[in-house]
Amino acid sequence: MEKKGIAVVAVGGNALIKDKTRQSVEDQYDCARDTMSHIVDMIEKGWDVIVSHGNGPQVGFILLRSEIARGQLHEIPLDYCGADTQGAIGYMFQNALYNEFKRRGIDKKAATIVTQTVVNRNDPAFQNPTKPIGSFMDEGEAKKRADNEGWSVVEDAGRGWRRVVPSPLPERIVEAPAIENLVKAGITVVAVGGGGIPVVEDENGKIQGVEAVIDKDFSSSILATMIDADLFVISTAVERVALNFNKPNETKVEQMTVAEAKQYIEDGHFAPGSMLPKVQAIIKYLENGGKKALITDPENIGNALEGKTGTWIVP
Question: What proportion of the chain, given as a percentage, has pLDDT over 90?
């Protein structure tokens, strides 16, 4: 097998929960098994792969259980919710990868790294929390939790009130050297789950978890840069990036340069909270020395690597 290099693959939220009728652990594992089969396709083509993933719905489930159990059990801090979901989703991916390797006769193993991501304690996001988490509440309950527990709360699009937390930019992946060593040893690594557990450093370099949520694509971009990955893949719900998305003049993009991507952003082609952060994460990777990047859906990763589909972004 010809070695292609190291690839960081950021798997989107649809990798585990495709719709609201299929949210059980068993349903999530079925989705994980499907997605990991596409990752193994990459590995068979010669790539050493690090898989990152989202965890928003899973953190929401833990917070809801914690709220239901109030008065009976201690509540779970947000950074520990991140750690819990990294372990659980990592187990799903490891199990699915192990069985797929076995099925194909590939002598390979997978391992999950509980990953911490350093953010700047002075990041402006800490003064302007914007990321909704947890359950919906009525206004009275929301303001009571805000007074008693110091939460920031907002009314969310007419659906009720929710807690919001900061979403600071990632600066460094603490476990990057361990991840790199595992990959070099031939291990398929699951890491940077949910963007990593956000931590801040004090003046002595000690780290401490904070109540925040990090964008997984930005953290995956940082990891790809730190380990000098040869390819950065963002696996999402669409086969190709589109200009004028969902409009009569929608156009699929096969390839774009960083300069073209920046112009498309300026022209308003990519929606915030959707395609915009994905393209921005890739631009950051390429501007920091990255070689090439790809956006496509999981089932088309193999075809995209052969140049048949997907959107390639190059320096």
Answer: 83
95 is catalytic: no
Catalytic residue among 216, 290, 300, 310: 216
Q: Which of 193, 278, 284, 310 is catalytic?
A: 278
- Spell out the domain ranges in the chain: 5-119+172-314, 129-165
Task: Determine the angle formed by the axes of helices 216-226 and 176-184, rounding to 10 degrees.
Answer: 60
Q: Which one-letter DSSP state was computed for residue 168? A: P
Give the pLDDT band of residue 88 (cuts 50, 70, 90): very high
The CA distance from 256 to 264, in Å, is 10
For the chain, the average pLDDT equals: 94
pLDDT band at 121 (very low <50, low <70, confident <90, very high): very high
Give the per-residue pLDDT at 20: 80
Q: Which entry of 13, 60, 160, 209 is annotated as an active-site residue?
A: 13
- The CATH H-level superfamily of 5-119+172-314 is Acetylglutamate kinase-like (3.40.1160.10)
- For 271-282, letters b (16+ CB in 10 Å) and e give eeeebebbbbbb
pLDDT class for 135, splitting at 50, 70, 90?
A: confident
The DSSP secondary-structure symbol of 70 reads B
Pairwise CA distance, residues 61 & 59, whole Å? 5
Active site residue 102: no
CB contact at 8 A, 151 and 74: no
Question: 4, 14, 95, 144: which is the annotated catalytic residue?
Answer: 14
Q: Are 18 and 57 in contact (CB under 8 A)?
A: no
Q: Would you say 175 and 191 are in contact if contact means Cβ atoms under 8 Å apart?
A: yes
Distance separating alpha carbons of residues 233 and 259, to the nearest angstrom: 19
122 is catalytic: no
pLDDT of residue 249: 95
Does the pLDDT of residue 223 top 90, yes or no?
A: yes
Active site residue 278: yes
Residue 116 is inside which H or E element, if any? strand 116-119
